[in-house]
Amino acid sequence: MKRPSKITTIVNEISQNLSTSSNIPFRPQKIRKLISKTPVNNTDSNPVNPHNPPKIVKPLTFQGEIDLALQYLRGTDPLLATLIDKHHPPTFDSSTPSPPFLSLAKSILYQQLAVNAAKSIYNRFLSLIGGEESVLPDAVLSISPQQLRQIGISQRKASYLHDLADKYVTGVLSDDSILEMNDEMLFEMLTSVKGIGPWTVHMFMIFSLHKPDVLPVSDLGVRKGVKALYGLNQLPGDLKMEEVCDKWRPYRSVGSWYMWRLMEAKGAKGTSSNVDAVAASVEAAAS
């Protein structure tokens, strides 16, 4: 029999060594160690790339997240960068968030009302139900539409409150499920509630859940801001808004915030009144 060559012997030894080392854990440990030292959101080693935006899972109230958002938006949108430099950074309530049911019920009560009028009705509602800690689905359903009308809540809004409460009682919605849903599912589920449309959902997502990538395409102030900032000939529709503001991803909530500030600076009447009312309802619900 012909003896194997020296080269063949060496190759066989290398193959045996590789096969016996497959269970040795030092390689994955070394890889994890290297990854852990990789800078996160560092523009020196990770330059802004609008075609490959970062994946954001943190709320805007997370420490340092606003700074990262502004840094990213400055790099992807020079026109927006001029607004960022002219206005103070966005602020969002970082205190303990209120339960989603309370925030949504309050949003319904504040809809299409001036802030002072909404506060007055909301306070009467709290007196009737027994305080904010008592704003629970069963308690809301126990109050008749007639009782709600007596404190200034319209018949239509009374039906909205009852529909929201009913969806909680029947298990269609819950505070836990709302906090766990992705943005698409959350939008679909909340707009199934009577009286809760896209605008209210977007405001809830921005000011209550502090989600970073929400574009309220139906908000007049944001649409006017986009038209003014980019010199468009007419107010952009939903598709145009998505197209123009795509460069803001994954911080479209922050970009929208600056559109409201832009229109306020231009003196546009009524630009932020509804926004302020809903922000007050969902962001200060626990105060």
UniProtKB/TrEMBL annotation:
Instruction: Please give the Pfam families that the UniProt record associates with this protein.
Output: HhH-GPD
According to its record, what are the GO cellular component terms? nucleus; protein-DNA complex
- State one molecular function term (GO): DNA-3-methyladenine glycosylase activity
InterPro entries for the chain: Alkylbase_DNA_Glycosylase/TA, DNA_glycosylase, HhH-GPD_domain
Q: Which UniProt keywords apply?
A: DNA damage, DNA repair
* GO terms of biological process kind: base-excision repair, AP site formation; DNA alkylation repair
Respond yes or no to whether keyword DNA damage is given for this record: yes
**Residue stretches making up the HhH-GPD domain:** 109-264
User: Transcription among the record's keywords?
Assistant: no
Q: Which family does it belong to?
A: Belongs to the alkylbase DNA glycosidase AlkA family.
This protein is called HhH-GPD domain-containing protein
